[in-house]
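Example (one chain per record):
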Amino acid sequence: MSKVEHEKIEKKVKLCLCEQWKKAAEQSGCTTDDGTTEVAPEMTSFINHTFQLVENAMDLFLAQCETKDKSRNSGLDEELVSWRSFSRKRPKSVESQDLHLAISRRETFPLNSNKGIPGHQIKPPPLSCAGAEMLGNSICAIISLSSSTMTSVCDRLNGHLLPRSLRRFLWMDKLLKSEKNFREENINLIEKEARERYGRKLEHRCDELKLRSSTRSPISGLIENAVVEKFGNTPSMYPFESDEEMIKESSKALNVLYVYNGLYEPYLIHWLFPLQIAFRQTPTPAEHPYELFMYLHLLIKNIFPSWLEIFSMAEQVMTTLQTADMELFIHLQESFPRNVTFNPKGWCYHQNMSSLYGPQS
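Predicted structure:
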């Protein structure tokens, strides 16, 4: 449906509802003394009173939900103890069911954490509150029941700050539904099926490589050093430079990806970073690196443009700049050759491998 058709239908619906409202007002006697269909003062008072009742009820419901969340968070301590005991018993084991264990997706961003740059405190985004998160959870529940509402929700919220719960849900929905061969349509069932599939293949790959843990690949040392270097040299990652948990889960996820399909590039650390922020959980479950690996693999495989598409877009941008902004074009042309390391043999090797075996999945 085009935008013009959508606007026409919307106007027709508004006119129809207005006519029905006038008929209802006339039949119920909710009109002014002169017989016009304007809303009577009594009706205005009733509407305001009803609105106040609904608002108070929503405030009460929100308070009850917050109380339940606190009680659930207190119960997480026992779950964390059991996970720690599991990790101690089998510190170097890999189980396929690690990928589809039930986990609590309720995320609390560590606003008061002392990790990171000294004196730097991560502040919550503006307009973020418990009420916004409750509305975000409600919208997620609606989308889960009817995926057709996804487009409408995204159109209406375009340009607005999203609650963390809704932003995380949109990430997960886009990533999981990018895989076309899943039998299920419900996002929760798709996630379960995806975890089982990835878990089985990981278990098989660990047996092939004779590894006890997929988070310790043959190049784990290289990956860990690269992660530490990227977190220390990238401005957007500075607040997490000393966050050991973030660095560890990034290293583990990239190790799992390498075990899964032999893929590793330093730039994947940057690709993984927004997924870490979107899906961050406190405390971090033991299977969280496996989750991040799964989401990163889906991003690489199905969503992120290929290098050919990237180069094509870059060429189009440069062509546009050459005519629209010659100064910026010249600046970029002069900046590109600086600090560039290029290995022709490595490039040719990757091109030959891609042509022989195709992209790794």
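Caption: The chain has three domains: 3-65, 99-106+129-303, 307-357.
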